[in-house]
# Entry
Amino acid sequence: MFKLVSTAPNLLWSHATKAIIPIGICLVSAAYLGMTVHNKSFSTDKSIPIASLRPGDTTHDNEYDEDQDAFLERCQAQYGEVFNVYLMNKCMTVVSGPFIREVFMNDSFNSMDALDEMTGIRAFILSMSKSNHEVDSPEIHGIVRDNITPDLPKYTASIVAQLEMCLDKEMAKYNKSEDGTVLVEKPILVVEEMVANAMANVFVGPQIAKNRHVLDSFITAAIDFGEMLGGGEVRKKSFWRTFLDNAGHKVMSPLQRHVKILFDAATPVVLERCRLEQEANTEGQDVCGHLVTLVLASVHTTSDTSTNILYHLAAYPDCIDRLFEEQQEVLDTIQEEREQQRQARTSKGEPIPEDLNPQEDRALSATAIKRMVHMDSFVREMFRCRTDRLSLNHRSRRNAMLSNGMVISKGSTIIINMKSAHQSPTQGEDVGKFRPWRFVGKSKAATKAGADFLPFGMGKHACPGRFLAIQQLKIIGALAVSRYSKIEMQDPSKTQKIIRGVVGTPCLSGLIFTCRQ
Ligand code: HEM
# Structure
C-alpha cells in the first residue's frame, strides 16, 4: 500500500489559568484556592500527595520554570516517586523512577490521548486521511517500522550523498573570511535544508524529492502545524482554547495544503508505479496524508537535534578532535578489510564485485556509522542531558493501579519525571554533567529506548523513526567534524542556555566554523 516509500531507495504563559480561578474569593489565600480548584481533576486517589505551592503562587509553573531540577528534587524528597502538581493548565500526577516503566507498559495509559487533549493533534491527523479514521491506528508506526527501518542500510548512501551535497551547497552561501572561518547566524536553516532533502529521498524517492515545493513543504509543515496549535503556547493552552481549536481543525486543516502539494507532485509517479488511476486517486491521497504526518514527526525533531549537535561541538571543542580521530580510525580499518577481501578474491581468481569498489572504501557506510561508538555516545549523552525534565504526558483510559497501590483514575493525566530517569545514579558519575563518552563500551546505543533513556519514549509506542533519526544525527556529526576543525559560538554567553534548551528553543547564537585545511 505504501508504494511511495517502499519503492524509493518555550513558552508563553496562558492567561487562562488566571481566568479559571474565580475572581472575588479574595478572602481565601491564593494557594488554597489554587489547590481547591485544581483538585477537581487530579486522580481521585487521595493517597497521592499534592506538592505544596510557594507562597503567592497559584500553580507550580513559576517554581518549575525557574529551576526544573530544584523543583523536582524538592518534590521527590518531600513526597516520593508519585505526586500531584498543577502545571501547564493541568492537574497532573508526576511519575518517577521505577514507576515510569509501569506507565509505558500499561495500555491504560495513552500518550496520544494526552497530546490530543492538549493540542487537538488527532483532528489534524484524521483530516489528512480519507479512509482510515481509527483513533488508535498503528498504520504510520508500521510504515516506519516495516518499510524504512529494515532497509536503512540501503538508504544510507543516498542519505549521506544528500546531506553532504546540501551541507556544501548551503555553506557556500556564506562568506569565508581570510582566516578560513565561516559565520552562520542561523545554523538551523542549513540543517533543515539537509534533513528535509535526506528525509524526502527516503520518504518519497529521488524523483519527487527534487520538487522544490515538496522540499519547502517538508520544512514548513511542522512550523505551520506548531503555529496552528498555538505557537509557543502549545504546552500551556487552556481547556477552552484547546476545545475551540479542536473544533476548528475538524472542519479546516491548514495541513491539507501540504497534502495537496505532495499529492500534485506524487500523483504522476504513483500512477506510473500503480498503473491504476483509480488506486492512485484514493490511496495516493491517503499516502500523502500519512507522509505529512511522518514529516511532522521527523523533519523538525531531527533538524533541531542535529543543530544541537553542532552547538554541543562548539560547547565541548575537545570532542571534535576525538570524533574526527575515531572517524579516521574506523575508515582506515574498513579500507583495510575491504582491501583484504579484494585480495582474497583476486588470489582465488574471482571477479571483484561492484560493492567492493575501492572508490567506496572511505564512504560513510552504515557499517562505518555503526562503528563510530564515540559519536553514538556523544549523541545519546546530548539527548540524556537535553530533555525537558517533565515530559511525555499520558492520559488514563480507565482506573489503573501502580505497583505501590496508588490508583490513577480514568481521565487523569500522568507526566513522566525524565530527570529521575536520566539523572538516576545508574547513569554513572556526574549525572548532572555532559560526559560525552559516558556510554562508550556499554551496551547503550543511542537507539536503545528504555526506562533509563526516554527521548524516544519506550514500549510499543516508542518512536519507530529513531533508527533513521540517530543515523542522520551521526552522519551530520561525522560530516561536521570531518569538514571543520573548530566550531565556536558567536555569542559564548548563551552557551549553557542553548545546550540546555529543549526542542523548539529559538536560535540564540550563530556558529563560526573553521574549515579544515
Ligand atoms: C530526533 C528525532 C526524533 C525524536 C526526538 C522523536 C521522538 C518521539 C517521541 C518522544 C515519540 C512518542 C513515543 C511515545 O509515545 O512513547 C515519537 C513517536 C513517533 N515518531 Fe518519533 N522522534 C524523532 C524522529 C522521528 C522520525 C525520523 C520519524 C519517522 C521516520 C518518527 C516517527 C514517529 C512516529 C510514527 C511516532 C508515533 C509512534 C506511535 O504512536 O506508535 N520520529 N517520536
